[in-house]
Specification:
The chain is mostly helical. Helices cover 60% and strands 0% of the residues.
Length: 138
């Protein structure tokens, strides 16, 4: 039995919860005056390593310009003192996961058209009604 390797809403939800945990942990660590900034950088490296391997497990590549820009921007924001209080890990993980989900619905070979046009009612002529016969004939 082969398991599906697609990101579903449950997996994305778990990813966001873990990212929120890392952001909250960094916020608490930043309350420590000087050592907190150094420790927060270590937490950041651990968090990005975990999410890198988690996304790789679901065959999500960071080689696209959009995803690379998202993760790089988040990484730089997390390195700047006092800006690393912002939940940029959560935002980056959510945007990369949603970008990957969008790619599941779009076929890259057909210039951004949906894979199954029958699922969208706006693709059929307005005067055509759906009947059992017309569905069976397709």
């Amino acid at each position: 039995m082969e398991l599906e390797k697609n990101l579903n809403n449950t997996i994305i939800g778990f990813m966001v919860i873990v990212a929120l945990f890392f952001d909250a942990f960094q916020f608490l660590i930043n309350l420590i005056p000087i050592a907190g900034q150094l420790l927060a950088g270590g937490v950041e490296f651990v968090a990005f390593g975990i999410f890198y391997f988690w996304f790789k497990n679901y065959d999500v590549s960071f080689a696209t310009p959009k995803r690379a820009a998202l993760m790089t921007t988040s990484f730089i924001l997390e390195l700047v003192p006092f800006l690393n209080i912002l939940p940029s890990i959560t935002l980056a993980v959510l945007l990369v996961a949603l970008d990957a989900r969008i790619k599941d619905f779009i076929d890259p070979n057909t210039q951004n058209t949906p894979r199954s046009p029958r699922t969208f009612p706006e693709n059929r002529p307005r005067n055509q009604e759906l009947t059992n016969e017309s569905i069976n004939n397709k």
